[in-house]
Design goal:
The chain is of the alpha/beta class and about 260 residues long. The chain contains nine helices and five strands. The protein has a domain of about 160 residues: 3-Layer(aba) Sandwich (Rossmann fold).
Length: about 260
């Protein structure tokens, strides 16, 4: 039987746990347990990295890569280039808010694409369409139904472009981020491709083999802009709420860039 002291202690533990849940940081800002430097050291101990030779599904050799930003696409682009696959970048991200953030992310992506002479398709920034589709989902959490809607919207456009322009396969760099639900992303990709007989979605796991780690290394090497929230206005709102509750400053658009340190 629990004493009054035991009950008081249990109540205190429950209260502290509840406070922790209420003030926990959004997924995309969580701090990895293992440092980047430690991971880099272990990689060096294993010897030089050798990229695997990637092949597209069903023997195809032409790919449309939906890109959300330079940091996420950097490792994906270099992996595809190393395998000699012909590809084009498709930038369609009407979720990104505000316009200043959108333009910075797009320009960083263009800068890296031009470095390798990769064709870059700058699709429409129809943000009003995105807001219309997001109605009623304003308070949904990260990885919830609003994110599914967002992935669906972007992949539907990518699949349509692939169908209209002779790309038998499309994929996305969104899944390389560990703060995203890969199953959610792949489900949206396959659903978008199902509308067309001549298009399929490539659900390659870009995280495996150290992909997520190389994403950070490339971002530092290239001094990419370091976005501090997923992209939409609701993600920005929730991240700033968490920061205020934690005594941190709100996000300053256009201020933070990766460094080599």
């Amino acid at each position: 039987m629990m004493t009054e002291l035991d009950l008081n202690q249990a109540s205190a533990v429950a209260e502290n746990a509840q406070k922790s849940v209420q003030t926990s940081e959004p997924h995309f800002n969580a701090v990895p347990v293992q440092s980047v430097r430690e991971k880099r050291r272990k990689q060096k101990e294993k010897g030089p990295f050798v990229r695997p030779n990637l092949t597209l599904p069903n023997g195809h050799n032409k790919l449309l890569l939906h890109s959300c930003c330079a940091p996420c696409s950097g490792e994906v682009m270099e992996a595809i280039l190393a395998s000699g696959i012909e590809f084009t970048i498709y930038f369609y991200n009407p979720n990104i808010h505000p316009l200043k953030e959108y333009l910075i992310r797009k320009e960083e992506n263009i800068r890296f694409a031009e470095k390798f002479n990769i064709p870059f398709i700058d699709a429409d920034y129809d943000r009003q369409n995105w807001f219309d589709r997001a109605k009623g989902m304003e308070d949904e959490p990260e990885r919830g139904i609003r994110c599914t809607m967002c992935f669906d919207m972007r992949f539907e456009k990518a699949a349509e472009y692939a169908h209209q322009n002779g790309f038998p396969v499309f994929t996305s760099c969104l899944g390389i981020s560990r703060w995203k639900d890969m199953n959610q992303i792949n489900g949206c990709g396959h659903r978008a491709a199902e509308k067309y007989d001549d298009v399929e979605y490539w659900d390659y796991n870009w995280r495996k083999g150290g992909g997520s780690q190389r994403m950070i290394e490339i971002s530092k090497r290239e001094r990419f802009y370091q976005q501090e929230y997923c992209g939409c206005v609701y993600s920005l709102r929730d991240t700033n709420k968490w920061r205020e509750a934690s005594g941190r400053q709100k996000i300053e658009i256009g201020k933070l860039y990766y460094s080599a340190d």
